[in-house]
């Protein structure tokens, strides 16, 4: 920690010419880097600019005579239980005065009974009211933001334990020394004398503990100066910075610790309002978001760094180098977060912790995701004129070290009326503008994304996101004629680039999509075509499971959402095995007819790229023909094509399987005659490799015999399937002689 004045020196010299800072809390200029425009912004409750000696209407009414009567006088107002008040002049042997005299002091100490925490006794608390206009003006020039003390009111009030004096008394004295007009001097001396006699000792004790990097629960308020930066870990244990708004102790009524829910234990707690920067997808602007964190009561003293959150200047023992490294890393992360949430949706690779937005559980996620700042789970609330935004990472419990201290979720704010006006320019901030350094540091460390493989929305950590390494070589493994490859690539690549220039329908937004049908026998490469085209063109592949669509009650709504997402993400949309949606309409099934009709209409207005694969193109409804731009037929695999597929899969085997590769390549003339499709060839090799590994307990044991064994099992299953199919057809023929067999499909769509 930075050096602090000697405690004994301060106690002996009092406050004349020498005061002490709380814990070397950074001033606004220290909290927010020099050279930025932040320091020029207006601040909450600062109606008069620094140096302005204008007074309130009440002061002007009272005039100079009343102000003169106040000079150097301290009053003590004791509020009795029966509602009456006793007014005492502390400078005249505690002589009692009439009630009308209480406004004739420079400052008053108001003593009254309060009941701050339920399950406790009533206790008497004091608050200091500054009535002297020159002293109030001096205080306003130093304290620009401090909720709850009435900076813009007719009197400034410092409730016990006198936080504003703890944080700012040194600066008030320094400002007094610089001032030319000393009209406040007698009143300031009066305040300092009272502080030395009644307050200073407790504040010095707190500072002494802070020098030892420990704090008691009742003294936590002295850690969190409004406007200072606070260090906190999110649910993924990532560091974040927030700006303190206000603090306050709360009683345990209505509060149950989340980890003690079964025992119903209730705890007193300190609540801290704080704000950070966030993204508003509804307005496409950056905003400030507020949240309230809580530390529950504990006994004895606690190391400051073991708290769930603490002032940034205590990070790593107050090491300036560590703090600068922290702020530098947060600034870099914040700029990346800004780009992710405000830019176009992008496909990224993620490997790290993630929170499922449906199941609300944290798990490890390793797959490609689409980060889309326009479709998040953020909810916005308007609360007493100020925007309240709650990110999921702001509402999670956390254990820090061994202290077992927690911060709670869903707390009501201490100061719901608003936040520091110094940073109002952070609200409604246009993404086209550049971030300041502190703005980037106050950004969260998480973003929302859609996991394509898992088909779910997650909250993920920015620091675990990396660029996708697109595999353009995958197209070489696609066994397709060069002409078809070239045509498919050209269509997909030029669609997004020139879709607004290509001839479309006379109706706006109609006919701008690209719909392609791939039809043929199973395992001939239809699905692989869509996958490799998406990989080569560096577009996310968004596959649709037809089972999900037909099993849901709101199939039309689901289709609309999927089509809208795919177009916005510039994704390649794949509807695999689309027979159910493409099949001809009939008079028998009106529900299914309705689904097909809706799907037809969606195709006309879809602006993205859609691949439809089917094995039964002959059953397609005639209305689809005019809505499909091109259809590619995939012939059954011949021996030469199978040879190419075998050869490419063999070359992709583990490098340790050198002997197995050699044997298989030498046997290509034999294996190419096996009547297997591309998917079956892949499966045979994969299972054979696993079989060899399980038998030899090591890599490099794969041989041709393993592949032959697995292939024979595949042929046996094929024969069984073919025999069963023939038997079913024969039975149908016996029941209905002369009737051609027609496969029945389930029509339970919704």
**Mean of all residue-level pLDDT scores:** 77
- The number of domains is 4
- State the secondary-structure class: alpha+beta
Rg of Cα set: 37 Å
GO molecular function, one term: ATP binding
Biased composition (Basic and acidic residues): 18-28
Organism: Phaeomoniella chlamydospora
Region (Disordered): 1-74
Task: Using brief descriptors, characterize the structure shown.
750 residues, alpha+beta, Rossmann fold, 6-stranded mixed beta sheet, 5-stranded antiparallel beta sheet, elongated, ATP binding
Task: Describe the overall structure.
The chain is α+β, with helices and mostly antiparallel strands and 750 residues long. It folds into four domains: 7-212, no CATH class; 216-346 and 375-447, no CATH class; 472-634, P-loop containing nucleotide triphosphate hydrolases (Rossmann fold, 3-Layer(aba) Sandwich); 639-735, no CATH class. The chain is 33% helix and 21% strand. It is built from 20 helices and 25 strands. The strands form six sheets. The chain has a six-stranded mixed sheet with strand order 3-2-1-4-5-6. It has a five-stranded antiparallel sheet with strand order 11-10-9-8-13. Strands 14, 15, 18, 19 and 20 form a five-stranded antiparallel sheet that branches. It is elongated, with a radius of gyration of 37 Å. The two termini are 67 Å apart. Mean pLDDT is 77; it is low at 1-55, 59-68, 261-265, 377-410 and 735-750.
Write the layout of secondary structure elements.
Blueprint (H helix, E strand, L loop, with lengths): L6 H7 L14 H4 L25 H14 L3 E6 L5 E5 L5 E3 L9 E8 L8 E8 L2 H10 L13 E4 L3 H16 L6 H14 L1 H12 L2 E3 L12 E5 L5 E12 L18 E12 L4 E12 L4 E3 L5 E3 L8 H23 L3 E11 L5 E10 L7 E5 L2 E5 L46 H5 L4 E6 L4 E6 L3 E2 L15 H17 L15 E7 L5 H11 L4 E4 L1 H6 L3 H15 L2 E4 L3 H4 L7 H16 L3 E6 L15 E5 L4 H13 L6 H9 L1 H4 L6 H19 L7 H32 L15
Parallel strand pairs: 1-4, 21-24, 21-25, 22-23, 23-24
Antiparallel strand pairs: 1-2, 2-3, 4-5, 5-6, 7-12, 8-9, 8-13, 9-10, 10-11, 14-15, 14-19, 14-20, 15-18, 16-17, 18-19
Helix pairs in contact: 4-5, 13-15, 16-19, 19-20
